């Protein structure tokens, strides 16, 4: 039940409630109608019993004789006058055998009784009224009765009407209820569709609100206020990152220059020289981190410009190999290039060089074995793969490898910032391409890029 859509749940609850209401109504109407019909029968029996008692009291005309009171209405009614021994003194109607047993007869001699029983000659069950009466011939028991076949048939028709009409009514009401639930939840669905298209960057947008000032309108207004607060917080964060990264570049560059000057001009010991060299390397990393943060801040604004031009894919990969060949050799690893000579990719050389550098740097930091840079034509574009012989991305990352600041345990231990693949995705998407992790036994980062000029200006929209 909890897994059903809310419209279906509302419809089911509404249908169950309607079934309970209809069942209660059927029981009430049936009981009320039965009581009314029984009251009508009882009234007729009392009238006929009074008429028969008057005949017995006077000792006059027999019940069935001409001129006797009209105490019989068709074959469904009867009247009897019984002696205390149970013998029928007078009778009229379809019942030929005594309508009372010996025990009931004794009770009737003491006072009026009423019961329902089967009487020979009367269809179905009969409702019987018996009362004592004294006449010229002594004590007698006046018995009148009426078949309940008509009453039972009326109640059966009512029951059949509820059994047939009830499910139809429940079905029609459920369809109407489902339609009403759908119409009532339409504003929620409209807000959901708009929310799926919203972005914190770009032009501010709001969720559509229904005209009625109801609970859904208040919910939408609350969500719009929350979106506005999130948008302002996102904008403050973006501006902070952009300003901080921009301001950090100059002092980091000055610090690096001073350290390099000290290394060139000073006569230091081995330990001091090693410390200064490590400081210069850390300055390089800080400078790269500042550049990365600035690029991500620009991409969040949707204005990461690229200047695409035709590039030879093999030349692009060879350039990446040469940049990292010495570093790979120091780690006892190799970088290979596999790309046909006629594959052309349409991209910004500076941005693609940065993207390839980030992927290769990740492979050197966290991968193992030979790194393979490959390119091939694929589906109207160019597919560039960077593969190493490592065990793949950390399972803790799940599908978040391209998210900003996403780092596995190994990246945390070696000081990684978790921005490399986020920048790769921003650059690839700015070219109109797609970055992904390829499935397989090795670690492969795949970039799909266009092989022809774009139809319009390109810029990344985060």
Shape: rod-shaped
Give the helix tally.
Answer: 9
- CATH top level label of the largest domain: Alpha Beta
Radius of gyration over C-alpha positions, nearest whole angstrom: 49 Å
The CATH architecture of the largest domain can be given as: 2-Layer Sandwich
Q: In percent, how helical is the residue content? A: 40-55%
User: In percent, how much strand structure appears in the residues?
Assistant: 15-25%
Largest sheet, if any? Answer: 5 strands, antiparallel
Write the element-wise H/E pattern from the N-terminal end onward. HEEHEEEHHHEEHEEHEEHHEEE
Termini Cα gap: 39 Å
Explain how this protein is built.
Helix content is 53%, strand content 18%. With 462 residues, the protein is α+β, with helices and mostly antiparallel strands. The chain has 3 domains: 6-153, Beta-Lactamase; 215-300, Orthogonal Bundle (Helix Hairpins), CATH 1.10.287; 304-460, Heat Shock Protein 90 (2-Layer Sandwich). Helix 6 runs parallel beside helix 7 (349-366) and helix 7 (349-366) runs antiparallel to helix 9 (420-430). The protein starts with 5 loop residues before the first helix and ends with a strand.
